[in-house]
Specification:
The chain is an alpha/beta fold. The chain contains nine helices and 15 strands.
Length: about 290
């Protein structure tokens, strides 16, 4: 009994009580922190988020609406690690839709990685079949895995997370003009993704559906090349924001100064992956804002 009433025991008891109190306080902080993170994640899941991924000289665009996802293109082979890291950092584990605009390596290069690591629920292939061995291997793996795949057709519509997507043009011509042009509407905001569409394809859009070209956001065709972005097409689209996906110091000299000038004349805010890396935009259904500024 003497030990339990000694000064040393009293000191030990005080220390233990203080440690227990500290652990209880830390536990409260952890619970509050987890709740805050969960709230932030829930907030981020609401609305439409658009990521123009920095994959060098290529295209890869992720759209996420209320937890559902669409990946449009996946960049060149050389950006495989960047694509994988970015998607994992964004918390992407599975894709609802994966669309390849056309069978050029800078757009489909990492398709097999997407197929194996992010298991898309449905794949939308371009109308042009393609002849490159790597692309044919991707198509072959699709069949082996039994992944649902359809070919893009003009007028095709699908939805994800409250966003409505429509194929405005598919297979108009060969090469860049044979790609898929996609319009995504979320609430009152519209996103226009043109792949590598060139001026001939833009003229076809102006002829077939000029009323559907007006948009808040434009993914500029063909990495900002002068082969795309005619004055007539840009005037019809009249975007408030435009994104150009191109590699820093690329050997093509892109984006072209003429394309930049035509966009600037529309008082359009221009964003570039070669200058700013991955670009992030967000729509709450009423307004579209850039989160990268």
């Amino acid at each position: 009994m003497t030990f339990f009433t000694s000064p040393s025991f009293a000191r030990t008891r005080r220390i233990v009580l203080r440690v227990l109190a500290l652990l209880l306080l830390l536990s409260c902080f952890v619970r509050v922190g987890v709740a805050a993170v969960s709230r932030r994640r829930a907030q981020k899941a609401e609305g439409l988020s658009l990521y123009v991924l920095d994959v060098g000289q290529g295209d890869a665009i992720l759209l996420r609406a209320n937890g559902e996802t669409l990946l449009v293109d996946c960049g060149p082979f050389s950006a495989e690690s960047q694509l994988r890291v970015i998607l994992h950092d964004l918390g992407v584990q599975k894709l609802d839709y994966f669309l390849v605009t056309h069978p050029h390596e800078d757009h489909y290069g990492n398709a097999r990685t997407v197929l194996s690591e992010f298991t898309p629920g449905q794949v939308i292939l371009p109308a042009e079949t393609g002849s490159e061995e790597a692309y044919l291997l991707f198509v072959s793996e699709l069949k082996q895995k039994g992944t649902t795949a359809v070919t893009a057709q003009t007028g095709m519509c699908f939805s994800f997370g409250g966003a409505e997507a429509e194929v405005l043009l598919s297979g108009f011509g060969q090469g860049n003009n044979g790609g898929t042009v996609l319009c995504v509407t979320y609430g009152e905001t519209t996103v226009l993704l043109t792949g590598d569409l060139e001026k001939e394809g833009e003229a076809a859009l102006l002829s077939s559906c000029p009323q559907k070209l007006s948009c808040d956001f434009l993914k500029v065709g063909h990495h900002g090349s002068d082969s795309s972005g005619s004055p007539e097409f840009l005037a019809a689209a009249a975007p408030r924001m435009a994104a150009i996906s191109c590699g820093a110091g690329n050997s093509y000299g892109l984006p072209d100064v003429g394309t930049l000038s035509r966009l600037s004349a529309l008082e359009c805010r221009i964003y570039r992956t070669d200058l700013s890396g991955t670009l992030i935009f967000y729509s709450d259904g009423r307004t579209l804002t850039c989160r990268s500024e």
